[in-house]
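Hi R.,

Here's the input for the benzoyl coenzyme A complex you asked about:
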Amino acid sequence: MSTIDYSQKIPNNVNLSSDRTLQRALENWQPNFLNWWGDMGPAGSHQHEVYLRTAISAEPSGWAHFDHVKMPDYRWGIFLSPQVQDRKIHFGEHKGEDVWQEVPGEHRANLRRIIVTQGDTEPASVEQQRHLGMTAPSQYDLRNLFQINVEEGRHLWAMVYLLHRYFGRDGREEADALLERRSGQEDNPRILGAFNEQTPDWLSFFMFTYFTDRDGKFQLCALAESSFDPLARTTKFMLTEEAHHMFVGESGVSRVIARTCELMKKHNVEAPDQVRALGAIDLNTIQRYLNFHYSVTLDLFGADQSSNAATFYSSGIKGRYEEGRRVDDHLLKDLGYKILEVVDGRLVEREVPMLNALNEVLRDDFIKDSEAGIGRWNKVIEKAGLPFRLTVPHKAFNRQIGSLSGARIAPDGTPVSQAQWDANVTQWLPTVADRAYVSGLMGRVSAPGQYANWISAPLVGVNKQPTDMEYVRFN
Ligand code: BYC
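And here is the predicted structure with benzoyl coenzyme A in place:
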């Protein structure tokens, strides 16, 4: 069934009331979630009424309802995409068999590991973004931040439902631990590297939602292929929400670039310090932020050779992006794939079994998808008649996971010595001074229809509303 029942304490479309034990367990977790939201959710926001969308149906058509709500009253719940009748496993060693409605014993540990890793990123991102509301450049942006935050909260619910429903006591313990780890905390950090970095300013936020939420898209697409049907269905529904997060990133960066270009043209300046004197973010700083978020996000795909990735695929737990559209045997045993390594100070390609390189396959799909948006950002600069172009750094640049970990590679792909790296890194990655400059620009703009000086207004409002609507009522 896919109608969402909002009359219950926990809105859901999984007929939760028919399983009293599960319902009670989740109702026990709910106050802990709300306490976590109170402590670690958006700072100072609990009385605001925010123009949010809420899911009304999990059907692909028309699921959103918009209204002003206080975020602690948001109806977080459990929504799975409708079940596809007679769905079959379509990759790996169980290809052709019925998908699993329960967890097969032999895949339990791996499935739990993946669900926990996915679940951990959701509250982590809310923690990373919790102070941004204080410095939102407009009501429109503040509302978008809050929309993303409540949806990440719901994505946590999605994974917690799977842990409670299918993994018994250890699943419940993992669900508790998801509320205990903290982004960036030394003794109990979040699982994946990028989710322990800070999101200290809005340029970081837009880069994060462009790049890191896109990792979310690709990982969720791979999980939506899973033979474990409840995981496939829940991630499929999460994907409908993810699209908005990436839109916020792409349009956010685009608006920063548009404003910078507008001021550069108006005052006929190009040098970064002249641009900064106008209170805008110079294009070189934007490039350095891009380099940072891109490279940190590439690491999220895991090691380029991973026996875990091979096992996840062969056992049918995690597919490839658009698995169904690929024309091979969906077993991949005899295929190879090229990965990069540094040998004798040179970057070289080496062919390895594709099954072991599936993290790299997904990373390369992500790279293609990311590049398209950067082309659109460059169009904004081109239209302004300026010669600057943003570029995507080489995939070996600034990597910390896998065979390229720690290699010293310039953004253009040239291997460099440690001394060359040290001499140039301030041109390649945001410096303390860059971050201080960008931070210094941040300050809340709260009047409807007003925008901070460093960002242009959006072209259209949320849900076809005017851009000067009161998206957030500060109470
Ligand atoms: N940081 O065999 P490998 C999202 C570790 S984002 C730190 O590749 P694995 C969202 C790894 O644990 C999507 N450590 O590992 C976006 C392993 O250590 P052990 C999130 C890392 O686990 C924005 C070792 O390196 N979803 O939804 O097989 C806002 C060997 O590596 C990292 C998923 O990621 C790292 N980045 O593969 C909100 C999907 N990478 O155990 C939300 C589920 C690797 O040997 N996760 N290590 O000590 C997976 O599919 C896999 O866990 C990964 C990594 C592909 C991430």
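One thing worth noting: The pocket of benzoyl coenzyme A is lined by residues 114, 117-118, 121-122, 125, 152, 192-193, 212-213, 215-216, 219, 299-303, 306, 308-309, 318, 359, 401 (CB under 6 Å).

Cheers,
M.
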